[in-house]
Amino acid sequence: MNKRIYHYILSAGMAVTAAACSTQKELSLPERITVPVTTDTLSLSSFSQVFNDPYLQGLIDTALHNNFDLLSAAQRVAVAQANLMMAKNAWLPSLNLALSSGVDKYADYTLNGVGNFDTNLSPNISKDQHIPGPTPEYFAGLRSSWEIDLWGKLKSQRQASYARFLGSEQGRRLLVTQIVAGVSGLYYELTAMDNELAIIQRNITLQEAAVATVHIQKAGGRATELAVQQFTAQLLSTKALEFGVKQEITSLENQLNALMGRLPQPISRTTITGTQTLPAAVKGGIPSSLLLLRPDIQRAELELTAAKADVKAARAAFLPSLTITPYTGFNAFKAGLLFQSPGSIAWGAVGNLTAPIFNKKQLKAQYNISTANAYTAFYDYQQAIVNSYQEVASALNKVDNQQQAFALKSNEVLVLQEAVSTANILFTTGYANYLEVITAQKNVLEAELALVTTRRNVYQGLVSLYRALGGGFNVAQ
Predict the structure, then answer these.
(1) Can you tell me where the transmembrane regions are (predicted)?
(2) Residue 244 has pLDDT above 90, yes or no
(3) CA geometry: angle at 452 spanning 447 and 453, to 5°?
């Protein structure tokens, strides 16, 4: 008998050892992209002038408190934190209060049936120890289960959950950056449309004066009905343009209110005139150390860390697992004897060493899934780095080009404004025809609107650059 038991134990040990040797290979990812090392001084504090508008700061604060997407992101962080709590405590034993009852009717030709019958005939037992048939079973006590983390599977799962929790925080930070950039972009778009509206209304006043003048000249025989019609048509076109801009302003205000999680209402804002100077030029190259702190890059890197830990946990699933299940409590086959101590006190412990044999296809499939997810996370991380560099490079070029274009457009507006005055003087003295006046007025209107667009592009470029560098809302604090 002893040899047979030894043979069984040896066979089980060999099976466990064989199972332990059949794990999958370790994860090996490609080389990471080389990040250039720079010593540039460009930082987020360079953008304080972009966010120093008190109205803009108030809108951003409101959006960060009320935006529904951001509130949802906070709940996703809470979910990730709860998952982390579960993973951190997975290595601890479970302890459950157990109250159970049951009944068994043993057949006469079974081990328990014969044993119970023989036991009841023994003179060594008392009346309370007689086993009834059918036999009830009552238990009240504690049961526990504890999986020993032999191969680091639970540790890897805990590392994956921790990385994903940190990743959810970075996801929320990324959303904050997007909201700040979105509110700022819409705000400067709105102020630019205000400026356009003011320019159009000023030109309407000038064109109304020109129509009145040409009517007087027609009455004096110095202009024709065609000149009156041309001046009037130009005035009507400019007035129609005014209503288009008003509609655009309303649409932008509604978009801003939606970002702030509120119903449509007027937006208070600063009036920006064409004489105001632009923010100082942003100088410097692409700061690699700052880019690596971008929330999307941080989140991609943390997701890669979590995916690697998933692969380790999937590899460990091929190895044997050791589970200990102790219990203690009151146990009896009669309800009246259940709590009669010490006779009803029972305890025990079982250790289970198990290794997967017939379910390895499922384990291998899970390992392949985890490996594919790790490669996906790696490529996403690489792409996030590439995207960050191209976004910063494009934004830097846009700001620089638009600032230079703004200087040229400013000079163009000054020249054309003088041209309008000259054309009006020449027209009243008979040295220019009405078409030259109309052309001059049209050109100055287009140039002034183009100047507003260029100013708006400078601010939009600065907001995009701020977002590309990692963003947030710390420069206004």
Answers:
(1) none
(2) yes
(3) 95
